[in-house]
């Protein structure tokens, strides 16, 4: 290789490294300006303070400072925070803030949190915001709780847990495939004045997208219940909560549910509808090993076949079970 070629390659590598270094930043790198934060403060006092407090301390809404705030956002790029503000805030008037107003508010939050200002405004485009993260070590690891945690034995079995939490909330999310949660409800014969809510079992108390948010959160936070010691299956057999495969399926459901929640925050029907395939796959993967007995010729499970209940919680992927 000639000396000229070596030099040319070195220049390309250096330029690529420099570009990547410039593209990936953290909120400690001065990603906003003081003037932008001042604009954000004016918007905050008018649109946000009534819920989050004049000093961002939290009132009806959560605080936007300190560990409570950082614990929620420190693993997500700045685009997620800006998107949350743009798509879901302020309460009662979601979607009324422009992209520029949203990043101005982000700038005010950063300044209030002690992150330094820079010489260039924080850009409102998604690609730029997605490259800005939070520095490692912002939130200290939680200290072990003193004393022994209170433990409650499970009251129901695994099937009841599925029917009470996982089945209705999953179906609510699946409804996004065919119905827009943000669409205005239309009157029905039963309710000619107000129409009906996003899903038939909804009471109309919460907005359509908020129902989807809550369903995804319910799945994510309830999934660890599948690992509760001594919980039993419908047939009385102890659920295999220490089985590595069972644990893997549970963790996959948690991860998918968290992803559905993040996508729900975008208020994008197409994105959430596409993610329902991953949610369905996560459920089917576990069912295929621990729940469903296929009919003759590989047909779908027969719900009237007693063996479907008798064999539940027994892994069919292991020849020893």
Brief summary of the model shown:
The chain has 12 helices and 2 strands; from the N terminus they run H-E-H-H-H-H-H-H-E-H-H-H-H-H. The protein has helices spanning 3-23, 34-47, 49-52, 66-73, 78-88, 99-112, 126-130, 158-174, 208-222, 244-264, 269-290, 307-310; strands at residues 25-26, 132-133. Strands 1-2 form a two-stranded parallel sheet.
Task: Provide structural commentary.
The protein has 321 residues and is mainly α. It has two domains: 19-133, Cytochrome Bc1 Complex, Chain D, domain 2 (Orthogonal Bundle); 158-310. Helix content is 49%, strand content 1%. The protein is built from twelve helices and two strands, in the order αβααααααβααααα. The chain has a two-stranded parallel sheet. The longest helix has 22 residues, at 269-290. It is elongated. The chain starts with a helix and ends in an 11-residue tail after the last helix.
List keywords for this structure.
321 residues, mainly alpha, Cytochrome Bc1 Complex, Chain D, domain 2, 2 domains, two-stranded parallel sheet, 12 helices, 49% helix
Indicate the low-confidence ranges by residue numbers.
8-22, 294-298
Q: How much of the polypeptide forms β-strand, as a percent range?
A: under 5%
Q: Mean of residue pLDDT?
A: 83
Strand-and-helix sequence, N→C? HEHHHHHHEHHHHH
Structural class: mainly alpha
- Label the overall shape: elongated
Can you summarize the main beta sheet?
2 strands, parallel
Helix content: 40-55%
Give the quaternary arrangement of the chains.
single chain
Q: Count of DSSP E strands? A: 2
Number of domains: 2
């Amino acid at each position: 290789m000639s000396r000229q070629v070596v030099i040319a390659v070195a220049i390309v590598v250096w330029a690529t490294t420099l570009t990547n270094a410039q593209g990936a930043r953290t909120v400690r790198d001065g990603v906003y300006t003081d003037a932008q934060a001042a604009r954000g403060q004016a918007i905050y006092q008018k649109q946000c303070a009534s819920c989050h407090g004049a000093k961002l301390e939290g009132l009806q809404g959560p605080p936007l400072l300190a560990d409570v705030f950082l614990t929620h956002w420190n693993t997500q790029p700045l685009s997620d925070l800006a998107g949350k503000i743009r798509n879901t805030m302020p309460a009662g008037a979601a979607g009324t803030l422009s992209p520029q107003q949203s990043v101005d508010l982000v700038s005010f939050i950063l300044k209030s949190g002690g992150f330094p200002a820079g010489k260039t405004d924080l850009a409102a485009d998604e690609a730029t915001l997605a490259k800005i993260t939070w520095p490692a070590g912002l939130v200290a690891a939680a200290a072990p709780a003193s004393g022994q945690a209170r433990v409650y034995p499970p009251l129901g079995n695994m099937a009841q847990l599925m029917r009470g939490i996982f089945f209705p909330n999953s179906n609510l999310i699946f409804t996004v495939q065919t119905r827009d949660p943000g669409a205005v409800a239309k009157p029905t014969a039963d309710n000619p004045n107000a129409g009906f809510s996003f899903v038939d079992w909804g009471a109309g108390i919460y907005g359509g997208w908020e129902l989807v948010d809550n369903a995804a959160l319910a799945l994510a936070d309830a999934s660890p219940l599948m690992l509760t010691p001594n919980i039993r299956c419908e047939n009385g057999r102890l659920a295999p909560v220490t089985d590595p495969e069972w644990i893997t399926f549970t963790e996959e459901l948690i991860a998918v549910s968290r992803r559905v929640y993040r996508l729900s925050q975008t208020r994008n029907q197409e994105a959430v509808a596409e993610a329902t395939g991953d949610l369905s796959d996560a459920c089917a993967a576990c069912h295929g090993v621990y729940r469903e007995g296929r009919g003759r010729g590989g047909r779908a499970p027969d719900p009237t076949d007693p063996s479907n209940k008798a064999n539940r919680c027994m892994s069919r992927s292991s020849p020893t079970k």
